[in-house]
Amino acid sequence: MDKFLITGGVTLQGEVRISGAKNAALPLLAAMILAETPMTLRNVPNLMDVNTLVKLIAGLGVKINYQGDTVTADASSIDNQFAPYELVKTMRASILVLGPLLARYGHAQVSLPGGCAIGSRPVDQHLKALEALGAQIEVEAGYVHAKVDGRLKGGEVIFDMVTVGGTENILMAAVLADGVTTIRNAAREPEITDLVHMLIKMGAKIDGIDTDTLVVTGVEHLNGCEYAVVADRIETGSYLAAAAMTGGCVKTTHTDPNLLEAVLEKFEEMGAEVTRGDDWIELDMQGKRPKAVSFRTLPHPDFPTDMQAQLMAVNAIGRGFATVSETIFENRFMHVPELSRMGANIQVEGNDAVVTGVEKLSAAPVMATDLRASFSLVLAALAAEGETLIDRIYHIDRGYEQIEEKLQGLGAKIKRVSS
Ligand code: EPZ
Q1: How many whole angstroms from 164 Cα to the centroid of ligand 1?
Q2: Which of 87, 220, 223, 379 is the 20 to 30 Å CA partner of 368?
Q3: Is the dihedral of CA 411, 364, 285, 398 positive or negative?
Q4: CB-defined site of ligand 1, < 6 Å
């Protein structure tokens, strides 16, 4: 199993190119199932999760080709609507093929995704929303069996909580339903907006973009198009956090400051100088020790849960103390015990953590537990004195394209070692 060996104490400087967003590429790939003519998706990040979903879509009979950062697909010859557990268990966002398969073929059999380290990750809201459009849903032997006589019917969907995946699934079903669907309490993440933009380019009729109420007027057919995946706002925030953590100056390119304003404001509260360009962001923390800042994770446009572990790591070496509240997932503090092994002072009470900044972290062997927690350990190792060995870094390969190369490009001493 691969590990990272990181020698800390280096101030990161330079430019890093941001890739397409994992959490946009996944729903956009699922939406390719809806196209009756060939389509092309560019700026697709080369990640384990993306490769898993490409494999699953190929298994449906879609002619799909993934070269470099471009995926081409021809979904005119889909010959089955079955998404097997073997693939879905490794990548829970596979559940996103349910809505498009049901909308286009009237039936689908998709494995229930397992939970993961950060929570049970149920999909009850996805299923409730599809039933509101007339789907008959049965869950049996770990699979969702969904079918509808004729076409799905437009209807009223109200989510009990903001759900990114639920909003994406119902959007990809409603676009081919007969009639108008209103989706209330819809997620407003930039990845949803990206999906809406591509669906409209394919011929869908959707109003309310960027709001919490989406109105979809169903059409009979959707065609392929050419589309580019939006920049990854979490990867952007993660590399800017590396500059804050090491007292450096990093410029992230091929990104968009509007995607992560709540995060940028927290970096400024920490004392960083943040400069925003059209498609770049620079964070300068040279000669400064960040101030620990409190924050609470909330749905977009507020502070994203996917940046919680990374900002907690910066707080761990910050001046003063701060409270971190995780309101989205029930178990997203798995990085705390690992950061504590490196000398962090963090007290957890339920979904709140009080972080008291320390001058220096010290290297220690640690273990990655989930994707974003892994990056927080990398951040801690970059700032710690000595050599840190991080185990189970397969978690990080799921969501960060070429992480060693990108960090080495900023001066980091990091290498992948196989045990
Ligand atoms: C997406 O997960 C992202 N993944 C997650 O990123 C992100 O953390 C999350 O949205 C929140 O922003 C992808 O886009 C592939 P949710 P998703 O449905 O859609 C509960 C990363 O690190 N819920 O918005 O699964 C759920 O348990 C990953 O890149 C239900 O109870 O998240 C959670 O507490 C981690 N029932 C909350 O809602 C449901 O049917 C938000 O989940 C659906 C969700």
Answers
A1: 6
A2: 87
A3: positive
A4: 22-23, 26, 93, 119, 121-126, 161, 163-166, 305-306, 328-329, 371-372, 399
Q: Take atom 26 of ligand 1 and give the residue whose Cα is closest.
A: 121
- Tokens (6 digits) for 372: 């974003």
CA–CA gap between residue 219 and residue 180 (Å, rounded): 10
Protein residue with least CA distance to atom 14, ligand 1? 23
DSSP state at residue 151:
S
Ligand 1 centroid, distance to 185 Cα (angstroms): 14
Q: Record the pTM.
A: 0.98
pLDDT (tens digit per residue) in 256-297 = 999 999 999 999 999 999 999 999 999 999 999 999 999 999
Provide CATH code, domain 22-228. Answer: 3.65.10.10
Q: Could you give the CA distance from residue 114 to residue 85 in angstroms, rounded to a whole number?
A: 9
Name the residue among 220, 148, 133 with its Cα closest to residue 182.
133
| First-residue to last-residue Cα distance in the chain | 6
Q: Write out the two tokens for 301.
A: 């446009």
Which CATH number is correct for 2-19+231-418, 3.65.10.10, 3.30.565.10, 3.40.50.300, 3.30.1390.10? Answer: 3.65.10.10
Could you confirm whether 225 is annotated as catalytic? no
Query: Which residue in the block uniquely carries the two structure tokens 């196209």?
Result: 35
